[in-house]
Amino acid sequence: MRDSDEDDVAASQRKEVSQGIGKSGVKASFGCIYLHWINERTLEAKTNESSQSRPDLCVTKCCGVNWSTSLAYGEARLAVHSYNNYLLCMDLINVATFCKEVVDKQLFEGILGIQIIDRMVVFYLLTLPSHGLYTLIPLASIKIPDSIQSLPALITKARAILKVLDVFDRLCVRATRANVISDRYAPTLPIGSIQQLFSESKKRKRQCVLQQEFLSLTKPYLASN
C-alpha cells in the first residue's frame, strides 16, 4: 500500500470516529487519544521552523481528522544502552524539554513524560508550580513482562498504573487559569548550556545520580520477583 493510500485510510478512520461511528464507538465530543511511535517533529516544533525536535513516541489527542494536542512525550532505548549514563541523561533531558514546550505553548497543568529503557517504563510528570520553576516528578516505574507466563506480575503494579492514569486524567489538561501558566513561563535553555552539566568524557562505570534514582525505582519490583 502506498503512503498516500495509508494516509487516506487513516484520515478516513479518524473521520469515522469524529462522526461517532468509528470502531471504537467514541463520540467526537470526547475525542480519541493515541499512543504512537513517530519519526517527525513535535506539534510544538512545527510552529518553529528552526526546531527539529523528534521524540521516539508521543500521546496525542485527535479532534476530527487532525491531531489537536500533545499529552505526553517519550524516549526509548534498547537494553544494550541501559548502562550508558550519558545517553540516559540526554534522553531524560529531551523528555523534559519536549514536555516543557507543551506546557509553555498549550498552557497545560502538566504533561506526562515517558522514558523507556529495555522493558522498564518510567513515568514522569512535568509541571510549572512557580515562575520559571519546571519540576519533573517521577511517578512510577513499571517493567513490561517478557512473556505471557509472566503477565500476571503486572497485578503487583496495579496501584502504580492507576496512579499514572489518575495523574494523566486530572493534570494533563489545559490549565483552568491559563494566564497564570503564561505568566510563569521561562525560555528554554539552549542545548549548549545544558550540555555543560555533563563531562566531555564518557565513562559508563562512573556513578550517576540518574542511574541510582532509576535503580531505586526498580528495587520494589525486583524485590517482589
Q: Summary?
A:
It contains 6 helices and 6 strands; from the N terminus they run αβββαβββαααα. It is an alpha+beta fold and 225 residues long.
Query: What's the number of helices?
Result: 6
Oligomer: single chain
Taken in chain order, the helices and strands follow as HEEEHEEEHHHH
Which descriptor suits the 3D outline? Answer: globular
The proportion of residues in beta strands is 15-25%
The portion of residues assigned to helices is 25-40%
- In whole angstroms, the N-to-C terminal distance is 45 Å
What is the radius of gyration? 19 Å
Ordered list of secondary-structure elements with their pairings:
Blueprint: H1 3-18, E1 32-37, E2 57-63, E3 66-77, H2 85-106, E4 110-117, E5 120-130, E6 133-143, H3 158-171, H4 178-183, H5 191-194, H6 209-223
Structure description:
This protein is of the alpha+beta class. The protein is built from six helices and six strands, in the order H-E-E-E-H-E-E-E-H-H-H-H. The protein has helices spanning 3-18, 85-106, 158-171, 178-183, 191-194, 209-223; strands spanning 32-37, 57-63, 66-77, 110-117, 120-130, 133-143. Strands 1-2-3-4-5-6 form a six-stranded mixed beta sheet. Strand 2 (57-63) and strand 3 (66-77) form a beta hairpin. The longest helix has 22 residues, at 85-106. The termini are far apart. Residues 9-30 and 217-225 have low confidence and may be disordered.
